[in-house]
């Protein structure tokens, strides 16, 4: 089941930082799925002063008033706009997260082998 709106306890953060809330609302109008790192980079370009002042906790608290976080699946770790389900929209496939994990030991072993 996908969330449709923010929980009551999170909604109180809407008045904390109006510029941040406006920024996130505009970002989710452009695209319904975002990674936190991408949002922070975009925020840094948009308003570096606010980005420096806002802690990770504050950013995530305000984000939680406009989006929910996917915990697993192809969009794990992404923030998704309330009311949007990326699993039901084929166009969301381009917004999936790709995770690469390399083990240092296996990389070193392969390096010393002859082709």
TrEMBL record:
Domain named Transcription factor IIIC subunit 5 HTH: residues: 8-101
Database matches in InterPro entries: TF_IIIC_su-5_HTH (IPR019136), TF_IIIC_Tfc1/Sfc1 (IPR040454)
GO biological process: transcription initiation at RNA polymerase III promoter
GO molecular function, one term: RNA polymerase III type 2 promoter sequence-specific DNA binding
Gene Ontology CC terms, in alphabetical order: transcription factor TFIIIC complex
A Pfam family the protein falls into: Tau95
Source taxon at top rank: Eukaryota
Protein name in UniProt: Transcription factor IIIC subunit 5 HTH domain-containing protein
Lineage: Eukaryota, Sar, Stramenopiles, Ochrophyta, Dictyochophyceae
């Amino acid at each position: 089941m996908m969330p449709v709106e923010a929980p009551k306890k999170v909604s109180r953060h809407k008045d904390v930082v109006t510029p941040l809330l406006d920024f996130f609302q505009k970002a989710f109008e452009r695209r319904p799925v975002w990674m936190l790192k991408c949002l922070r980079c975009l925020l840094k370009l948009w308003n570096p002063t606010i980005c420096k002042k806002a802690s990770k906790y504050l950013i995530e608290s305000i984000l939680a008033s406009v989006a929910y976080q996917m915990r697993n699946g192809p969009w794990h770790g992404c923030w998704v706009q309330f009311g949007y389900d990326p699993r039901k929209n084929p166009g969301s496939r381009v917004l999936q997260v790709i995770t690469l994990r390399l083990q240092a030991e296996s990389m070193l072993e392969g390096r010393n082998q002859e082709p």
